[in-house]
């Protein structure tokens, strides 16, 4: 059974006002002093962010439990210095992001200007084990059409600088400003993949392989493929669903490759449209069907994804749980809908954040 690891980026906020606070260095210092949680936590581009990474897990129940533990540990450490963590992919309240002082982040600030300075977004990255670069590239080529559905399921960033963006995942639109981000053409071979990455690095626009922000890529540090299209999810159960579906996509793609089935050859232009549609609509309207690229109701497209990975999820014992969690999301909505409903009920973006702090660690 393939192992799965999750990286989640969290916002650091004032527990009373909900405003982002640039305290990642202080939280990490507290973790070092405390002697717990330090190995799981990292800084991110902005000082208002904190990232944690789980261990590789084969069992999705264990993965979910570790996500909750990591969220709670980050919340405890933040609470020790008068802050809180919240699983929101953008800040609902206006903020002035503060870029971290390490040399890599400062280079990005100089090179990319306002795009880097405004990039206070929190994503969820899922790593799934693969046996080789050959298998990894075969997987990347075959999962491309399905990634936009993960964006729709995970959408959790409706607000930007105090305004409703009219998007379910505005994070993905802000992230798309990076010139090295987004969907890719078919690679075909590991050699073609690594040549593409090397050519990008050779332009001087990116520092190294780790700064090539494809929607899905071969991880630089681990024997995994890394899928990077999801918002950080408000509820840990949604994160587990995304991770489950990603593992199912990877296993299904690997089986198709071994069986000699060719990947669907949608061009990058169509994939970008599918990504935009998912970011805009979330689960509230039509999505582009991954196989036909025709607009279809979100519920139909989500069920198409579940059908596509059904055999793989059956083999790992995950199908029933995935179907139930997806049905709940379709019934009650994703994080973006939850945030909008909170605003309608409370009339306050600050209250949206403080309630989401509670749900992050619930």
Task: Tell me the number of structural domains.
Answer: 1
Major sheet description = 7 strands, antiparallel
Q: In which range does the helix fraction lie?
A: 40-55%
Overall 3D shape: globular
| Beta fraction | 5-15%
User: Would you count the extended β strands for me?
Assistant: 11
Spans with pLDDT under 50 lasting ≥5 residues? Answer: none
What's the tally of helices?
15
Mean pLDDT rating: 96
Please tell me the CATH architecture by its name: 2-Layer Sandwich
* The CATH top-level class label: Alpha Beta
User: Mind telling me the C-alpha Rg?
Assistant: 19 Å
Which structural category fits the helices and strands? alpha+beta
CATH topology descriptor: Creatine Kinase, Chain A, domain 2
Head-to-tail CA distance between termini: 29 Å
Helix/strand order: EHEEHEHHEHHEEHHEEHHEEHHHHH
């Amino acid at each position: 059974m393939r192992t799965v690891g999750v990286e989640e980026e969290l916002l650091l906020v004032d527990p009373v006002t909900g405003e982002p606070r640039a305290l990642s260095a202080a939280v990490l210092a507290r973790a070092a002093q405390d002697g717990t949680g330090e190995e799981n936590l990292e800084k991110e581009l902005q000082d208002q962010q904190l990232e944690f990474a789980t261990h590789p897990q084969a069992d999705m129940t264990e993965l979910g439990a570790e996500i909750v533990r990591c969220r709670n540990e980050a919340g405890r450490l933040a609470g020790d210095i008068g802050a809180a963590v919240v699983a929101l992919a953008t800040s609902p309240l206006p903020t002035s992001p503060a870029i971290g002082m390490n040399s890599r982040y400062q280079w990005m600030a100089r090179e990319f200007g306002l795009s880097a300075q405004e990039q206070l977004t929190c994503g969820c990255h899922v790593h799934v084990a693969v046996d080789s670069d050959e298998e990894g590239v075969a997987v990347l080529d075959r999962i491309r059409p399905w990634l936009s559905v993960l964006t729709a399921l995970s959408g959790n960033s409706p607000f930007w600088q105090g305004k409703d963006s009219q998007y379910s995942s505005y994070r993905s639109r802000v992230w798309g400003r990076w010139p090295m981000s987004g969907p890719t053409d078919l690679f075909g071979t590991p050699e073609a993949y690594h040549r593409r990455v090397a050519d990008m690095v050779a332009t001087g626009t990116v520092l190294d392989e780790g700064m090539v922000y494809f929607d899905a890529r071969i991880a630089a540090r681990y024997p995994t493929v890394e899928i990077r299209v999801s918002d950080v999810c408000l509820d840990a159960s949604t994160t587990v669903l995304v991770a489950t579906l990603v593992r199912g996509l990877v296993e299904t793609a690997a089986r198709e490759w071994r069986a000699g089935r060719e990947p669907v050859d949608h061009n990058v232009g169509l994939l970008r449209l599918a990504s935009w549609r998912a970011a805009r609509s979330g689960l509230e309207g039509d999505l582009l069907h991954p196989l036909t690229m025709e607009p279809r109701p979100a519920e139909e497209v989500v069920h198409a994804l579940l059908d596509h990975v059904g055999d793989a999820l059956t083999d790992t014992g995950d199908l029933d749980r995935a179907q139930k969690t997806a049905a709940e999301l379709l019934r009650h909505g994703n994080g973006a809908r939850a945030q909008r409903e909170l605003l309608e009920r409370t009339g306050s973006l600050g209250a949206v954040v403080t309630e989401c702090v509670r749900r992050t660690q619930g």
